[in-house]
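Objective 1.3, modelling of assemblies. Example input:
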Amino acid sequence: MEAKKLKIMVIDDENIVGKRLKPALEKSGDIVETFENGESALARFDEEPFDIVVTDIRMEKIDGIEILERVLAKSAHTKVIMITGYATVEIAREALSKGAFDFIAKPFKPADLRAIIKRASKELRA
Amino acid sequence: MPIIIISSDSYETGREISKKIAKATEYNYVDREILAPIAEKFNLQKGQVIKALEETPSLFGLSAKLRNRLLACIEEATVGKLLGDNVVCHGLAAHLYVLGVSHLIKVRVLSDSKKLASQLSSEAGGSADKIETLLKRKVKKRKQWSLDAFGLDETDPSNYDMVINLSQIDQDEATKNIAGMTVYRKFQPITYSINCLKNKDLACRARVVLMEQFPDVKVRADGSTIVVEVKIKKRTKQKIAGVIKKLAGGVNGVEYVEVHAASDFR
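Predicted structure (tokens):
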């Protein structure tokens, strides 16, 4: 039986990130929507929840940590993956203790993110 | 699972509690036993390798060059063990050179110096007060050593996730508290922290190879790329860069080598 397609949301204020990740993640047959700010992403999440949210941390107005908190408050089963070019031990630990599924520093290869998503989807389907 | 690094003002106390933590968590215990192959490599006694972890270079002790090479080998061996996961590590100064890894729990255990002094006094003779003074002097020496070797003060509590004073809390209770930290979500391994440790491992392995010819070399790694900083004169830069690229390129896992002329060496 074919596995249910995952709905993945990618949020990053650098549009190149969404542009590059969308086709890379769609290769697995999943549905990917990209957003360049937290407001529009959260508005979309209010309409319907996503299985996986990939979000940058440093963004104007709404940062990745706030997105993490608001997404998990609305949908506890959603797996939130944090990406950042400013990774530190403190930020990584904060994100994890607030419920992030994983955390990866930029730059990364799309294959690295796909591996994390594969683990997340296994947990979602378990 | 997280990795636990124990640092203590007393090697014996640190070892004792580390073994208890390893037993409670069912983790592997890593200590100075891993130094034997390094001693063999340098044709030294294990005690001389341990000196690199305890003494600053001196006229009658280890030379700075040998001390630095030994420390680089100790780093390499230790980080290799930490990659194995489920580890309690003690006695190898890992808290001073494995930095920026979020699934590494660093704990400072302060021994009960009065109790330790009276214990040592009954074992070896001499007044407990005198031994306590000697122990305090030893801590000062350790601080000096850590600053000299790694530029970090190991007695500074801000370098740790937890500091436990055994004069206020007994060893079994301390063991329970430290082992309990391993279930905290914030200390679980993540892609970022695993990659940091892998990068550190690759950099350490490349540094050990390069140090034989370039004692002052600095190496950092990102994935399969390593960046080497070395003191080079302008006219020999190209030649030396070629040698470094050849040597480092032979290290398992290295695909690309960048060489920079160093501007600032501590």
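Chain B touches chain A at residues 100-102, 184-188, 190-193, 195 (CB under 8 Å).
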